[in-house]
Design goal:
Two copies of one chain form a homodimer. The first copy, chain A, is built from ten helices and seven strands. The radius of gyration of chain A is 29 Å and the shape is elongated. In chain A, 47% of the residues lie in helices and 14% in strands. With 243 residues, chain A is α/β, with parallel strands linked by helices. A seven-stranded parallel beta sheet of chain A has the order 3-2-1-6-4-7-5. Chains A and B meet through helix 1, strand 5 and helix 7 of A and helix 1, strand 5 and helix 7 of B.
């Protein structure tokens, strides 16, 4: 089954460090993005790339190496270039989250390229001019040295969340206590707390409302009501023995 | 000036590879998060940590190393544990984006810990039980091997976007063309296109509406109208010479 993420093509231009290629392959694989195109990498294939890919060999094995950015973009419906630096003639500039949504909107028409520059200098103005959209990633203005594989990680994460949402697993739900069960629990608690002399029924003050608020916030389950009533019953026995 | 991000405390438990500590420090620094606490790291300090930190020495120099998770969480207003695996007794489980919003909401009350487990096994149930919220990161279900420093990167990115938004730089804006200037441009274009015999004014068809639509979508600037009228004027000269 082809998904929208299969349409995404990560393009890395003039990458210097093969470790970054491997780390990018792993980053892509964790997010379900599989097409990697390298434009004139300095060293590839390379053992450091394989090591840092850490088992994401499906991505590395399918890598395409090409000579120019135009080769990398051939057949794409749209392309998005990443740039940390402002550019004078930028047309459409989007934060990576909005750029991911843009990429998915165009995935129905063909592949969409996400283009990353070299470690030292990013994308040139000429390279960016081949992209319809420039994407930015929020960083600390005092230290914006985002590793290129980390940038690929963040972009692929935003693609995955945009394509499939961000719910991974949810808290298990057990049967909720009914209103009657909760009412009986608080009636029992009131009696027991009075029996313990923790609570004077003629001066109720705020104890019971506070307890009701706590348990309302938690959202009581049947099983939890049973546990709490078991604790109260045990206290009742202690009170009876003490009497 | 203390910002909300200064309240965020990244806690890494039992990290095996010092390179991951360095990469996490760099990831934090790029997003403006500075407090790193290591619980019983296997190797630290270590040259690989320093190398991978790539200049994020401010974070590494301020690292605190402690023996237990309880030590790491001391003084925190809230703590959030990261887990890829579903847990039977999980209470509140949030995707990392929602967890980042939760962290910032509690930052007014004190530090907020974001807790990451070891490379091999993540956080234990006992460790997670010390956290009020469990956070999840969306990954490819067929290859969810997210590197721990990459997880720190994504979490810190979500914190930064939640705290400061995700606008980095925007496309430069130049003065927009007025309606009159645009009307004159299209009047000029109509004359020139007719003069070129590209367009028959008695059978207007869809040419002009299509061109109007294109330029409306682009949002014409004054300078662009001048360039386009300059091109039309040059064509007018060619037509005149050809006549």
């Amino acid at each position: 089954m082809t998904t929208l993420l299969d349409r995404m093509r990560i393009v890395m231009c003039a990458t210097s460090h093969p470790g970054n290629i491997g780390a990018a392959a792993r980053a892509m694989n964790t997010m379900g993005v599989s097409q990697l195109v390298l434009v004139a990498p300095r060293l590839f294939p390379h053992e450091e790339a394989t090591a840092r890919a850490s088992g994401a060999t499906a991505v590395l094995d399918a890598v395409r190496v090409v000579d120019t950015l135009d080769d990398a973009l051939a057949g794409c419906a749209a392309s998005i270039g990443f740039s940390a630096r402002p550019r004078e003639f930028a047309g459409s500039v989007l934060p990576v989250r909005a750029a991911a949504a843009y990429a998915l909107r165009h995935a129905g028409e063909g592949d969409v390229a996400l283009v990353f520059g070299s470690e030292m200098s990013g994308l040139s103005n000429d390279e960016l001019a081949r992209c319809q959209v420039i994407a930015t990633i929020a960083t600390n203005p005092h230290y914006s040295s985002l590793n290129v594989a980390a940038a690929v990680q963040l972009a692929c994460y935003e693609l995955r969340v945009a394509a499939h949402g961000d719910t991974v697993w949810t808290a298990p739900r057990f049967p909720a206590a009914s209103s009657d069960e909760i009412a009986r629990l608080f009636a029992h608690a009131e009696t027991t707390l009075a029996g313990m002399k923790f609570f004077d029924p003629s001066h109720p003050r705020r104890l019971l409302p506070r307890l009701r608020r706590l348990f309302a916030r938690a959202g009581l389950e049947k099983e939890e009501v049973n546990i709490l009533r078991g604790i109260l019953a045990r206290v009742d026995e202690l009170i009876a023995r003490d009497a």
